[in-house]
Amino acid sequence: MNDNILLEVKNLKKYFSLRGGLFFQSSSGIIKAVDDISFSIKEGETFGLVGESGCGKSTTARVILRLIQQSSGSVIYDGEDLFNINHKQMFKLRKNIQIIFQDPYASLSPRMTIGDIISEPLEIHRIGNRGIRIKRVKELLDVVGLNPEHLNRYPHEFSGGQRQRIGIARALALTPRLLLCDEPVSALDVSVQAQILNLLADLQKEFNLTYLFIAHDLSVVKHVSDRVGVMYLGKLVEIADSIDLYSRPLHPYTMGLLSAVPIPDPELERQRKRIVLEGDVPSPLNPPAGCTFHPTCPIAKDICGKEIPPLKNYDKNGKDHYAACFFAGKSIELPQ
User: Fold this and answer.
1) d(Cα 295, Cα 217) in Å, to the nearest integer?
2) Residue 13 and residue 276: Cα distance in Å, rounded?
3) 111: exposed, middle or buried (C-beta count within 10 Å: 0-12, 13-18, 19+)?
4) φ and ψ at 178, to 5 degrees?
5) Which residues fall within 8 angstroms of residue 236, CB to CB, at 6 or more apart?
6) Residue 256 and residue 299 in contact, taking contact as beta carbons nearer than 8 Å
7) Rounded to the nearest 10 degrees, how much is the dihedral formed by the CA atoms of 318, 319, 322, 325?
8) pLDDT per position as a tens digit, 203-229
9) pTM
10) CA neighbours closer than 13 Å in the CB half-sphere of residue 71
11) CA distance 214 to 237
12) Residue 48 in contact with residue 228, Cβ under 8 Å?
């Protein structure tokens, strides 16, 4: 990893209009799926984006890829603003930015062979002839731990973990620099998850890849990430070095998430007390005023319901540690 910033997201917003009325002709509200977030990823780094379902993680990835259009903000890739270039320029850049999808079953066409699936990006970008593409497919299958002779088989002949390896091989076909991993192990068994995570780590070293790793499992994110961003209801509430975040969380939402991660020691697990966040998560259609977390926050004060806390740097040990909380770092009193 070096200090060169490969991807920078600035004040990114994605709002969805809900349609109602006769033939859905009138707008009935706006969902703030991604609400003014900013972060950067260094070349060779793994940046983990974590949060519960519906917080806007996957939407962020799709906006970065321009699979859906942003409402405002910018995404700078290697000095190029992805939202200010035309389709032809974006087509060329797509070779450098690829995605691994969450569902290994839905992301592979059941009517295509594995060889056709992996070679499709090469055909679209007109790289090599058929012989060269077949050779490349066999190399990629070998790289991800599959038998190169299976290129004429169909997706239904493989297990979930094998299908995800196929998806990874497809993402690597164009030798990208940045991979967006959209919960790549959440649909897999625990033992298979470890295999895929180890594979991604090996591939990162071998090909000098940069990852945006999206997940809702904090233990998985801790295992793979150099830095972590925590999202809540479309906003980033904390960004820090992985070790620092897990040892010294500053935002009460992060504290609550970490307290729910089981410890692989029965004795310690029985002794510790969990932080229970009471109440329901507010609707993104009608978020509360001020800090969106304040209705369920155990340390919220009057100011939290009136003003939006800025994402402020609370660095104390030479590493940036950002948190969006007026009372960042305040301990939460647990019931006896």
Assistant:
1) 23
2) 30
3) exposed
4) -125, 130
5) 37, 38, 39, 229, 230, 311, 322, 324
6) no
7) -50
8) 999 999 999 999 988 888 888 999 999
9) 0.90
10) 17
11) 15
12) yes
